[in-house]
Every structure is written in structure tokens, then in C-alpha cells.
Amino acid sequence: MVIFSMGPKRPPQRPMPNQIGIKDEIARELGFSEEQKSQFEIMAKAHRENITSLEKIERTLISNYFDQLSQENPEEKKIKLMEEIQAINREKIEVTFSHFEELKGLCAPEQLEKFEEVIAKILPAITNSGPAGPPPGNPPR
Questions:
Q1: What's the mean pLDDT in 58-66?
Q2: Which of 6, 10, 12, 36 is nearest to 24 (CA)?
Q3: Where are the domains of the chain?
Q4: Is residue 14 predicted with pLDDT exceeding 90?
Q5: Residue 105 φ/ψ, nearest 5 degrees
Q6: CA distance 4 to 74
């Protein structure tokens, strides 16, 4: 099931401050040239737009899932909604993996030597799987 909104267009979404820091950190750690930074900016914007779209669909599905609390015999609908939520999460992971593959393709051979280390460093922040609280050096939001 795909959900489309025909409502008014919202202004372009600005990246969250943490995302700006992550992009800068990646570019700095990998030693990107100005051209690479420009290409990375385009890639990151496309990735963010894709993820934002998926998250909007996910929020709607989750809301619909919890709406089942007020329904009689919601089991079949709950199962279907949960499958759709899981599919969206799978797609978000696949989209992010593809984004990193594209980022890897942007790297020169000497930058590839640092790529895995850089990704390992930033992955917890991107996947929300790191320790609670802001990353070191960043103030709480």
C-alpha cells in the first residue's frame, strides 16, 4: 500500500543540525575535495528527501496501527499494517545502504582506506543505535 498526499506543498525541509555535522565530519575525515563535497551534498539531499518521504508514510501507518485499539476484531488489519511498517523500515535501511555505496563510489582509492572507519564512527548516530544523549562535542537538543 502506497500513500500519497495531495495537500499543499511544504517549504523545503532543512537538514537537522546533527545531519549537517555528520556530512561535514564525513567530508573532513575522508579528505573530500570541493568537487566531492558538492557531489556528496547532492547525494545527501536526495537521501534525506527519500528517507523523509518514507518516514511520513511510516508515521501514517503507525497511527493507523494504533487506531486499531478502538476497533473490534482488529487482528487482521493490525497484521497487515505491521507488515507495511516493517516493509517501510526495510526500505529505509536499503535506501541508506545504497546511499553509503554511492558515497563509497565517490571516494578515491586513498580515501577508501578510511571509509570503513568513518562509517563505523557515524553509523550509530545515523541509525539511532548509539548511546543515549547527544554525540560527544554536541550540545543537547
A1: 97
A2: 36
A3: 36-127
A4: no
A5: -65, -20
A6: 24
